[in-house]
Design goal:
two-stranded antiparallel ribbon; 49% helix; 148 residues
Amino acid sequence: MQLKKYTDYALRVLIYCASQEKGKLSSISDISDTFNISEHHLRKIVFNLTKMELLESIRGRNGGIHLAKPPSEMNVGILVRQLENDFTLLECFDKDTNHCIISPACKLKHTLGKAMHAFFKVLEEYTIEDLVVNREELRAMMGIQLQH
């Protein structure tokens, strides 16, 4: 199973913002430069994360984005489920398009379903806060300067 780039980038935006000093705004431009992601693509992601009430966007000359709620309240498993829209691992996972002749007797669907359940169970054990416990190291790697 591979997550979409959209989900990857959305999680990176949240990690970037969670790594900032409390109250400091981040810019899409800085995030784009840090991760070498198109600003245009990031704007769409930030727009959706704002609609999801995960980010708050401040307009204007001194504007930017920041987390709309504490990172400890952002569950990674729930986020991935919200950001991804297709968990059809195999044809047999979709009863409308399944044409596999061995589906009634095949154990693969059950096995993969169980694995996917375990995948989400692990993700649900973590929040964005858990992903940024090493803030200082992340800040250094992302070039985030502390305000003095």
